[in-house]
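Lab notes, practical 5.
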Amino acid sequence: MLRKAILVFVCALALVAGTSATLSAQTAAKDIARLGADLTPLGGEKAGNAAGTIPAWDGGIKSPPAGYKKGGHYVDPFAGDKPLFTITGSNMGQYAANLTPGQQALLKAYPTYKMNVYPTRRSASHPKRIYDKTREIAATAKTVENGYGVSGAVNGIPFPVPKQGVEVIWNHLLRYRGDSAARDVAQAAPTRKGDYTLVQFRDEFFMLYSMPGMTEAQLNNKILFFKQEVMAPARLAGGILLVQESLNQVKEHRSAWLYNPGQRRVRRAPNVAYDNPGTAADGMRTSDQLDMFNGAVDRYDWKLVGKKEMYVPYNAYRFQDPKVKFSDILKPLHINQDLSRYELHRVWVVDATLKAGERHIYKRRTFYVDEDSWQILAIDQYDNRDQLWRVSEAHAMNYYDVPTIWTSLEVHTDLQAGRYLAIGMNSEYKPYDFNVKRTMQDYTPEALRRSGVR
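Output from the prediction step:
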């Protein structure tokens, strides 16, 4: 009798498990069917909002605007737009529902800080093959190793209809930014009085995950290669960082090497990760804050708060306008907010809380992620006393010759120090090159040794 009861119980469990699996598959199929229907091909809501302040997505920028010359700086498609209103410290109360805690803190801290809000332009667009691959891998993509890695995915956005916070972050990490890119950018950390020294970087990105025809097997657990050479000032010039980023970071952590021009040696750089200081950033950002967030996700618990309408930096073409000088951007206490453009967009909100026993200078981080591109647009970072410490904003734009949404400037403001770091300034340098010709062999330690000439 006991044996029969156990058998009945086991069969019941199997039936429940089978039913759950079937329901899960049906839910996934239902979500996938929404892509390109009521959802954009990458998972955003196609429709505008009820108030009419967010328009419907109609495909984003489909072709470069008049006046743009390939290989040149990007013409602002929305240069004729005028601000709808300006948010300041004195009137922010009426807009608080759509402001992040970090934005409110900046408005309170600096009397000269303001946010010019423009009409919302849902300009995000991507190649059709990225849309097609997103639909394809949505049926196979899954997180593995407690969310620390992803399998069943290549090219597209793995979780266009996310159910967990870590899935949103993986969408950011694996979003499309072109196949390869080279850029010259400047970084500065002004003093409170506004004095600064420019640091010039030459960055290269080789986006393995996004390469046409790439397979998961060919990835060999790598998603991108990154090389960064310091070009100026002279005391730092010649140092080169090489990173090989992993897909499953439990199976294999990121690999990194540094070329030291003084020693003319290449060394492993295991500390280029997590909360170790960013390169030449005067302690104003961590390694995992480049590109707003990069690297392993294992030190945090990720909670999906939901979706909200927020004023976020968007269509920030002014920062790469060659008529704008770096000195026009860099001002005491905060960047020149007359050059910033904010719009009302729907963003996914994700809370990251440091796990018990793990170490990071940020105990908690709140991420605001664009529904149309999966670009992180803003982050609030808290210290170990649960006090708001640093506020980050990504001033994003559509590089429409690719096309892709990426940043024209990242700003990380330290509220406690009263200073900020600006990285990604490009207006005085040549434009981004999304057609750089490289191979995987160009991103090895051996290639790094050969490239070190100082």
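Observations recorded by the TA: Helices lie at 2-34, 101-109, 128-137, 165-173, 216-219, 326-329, 445-451. The first strand starts at residue 85 and ends at 87.
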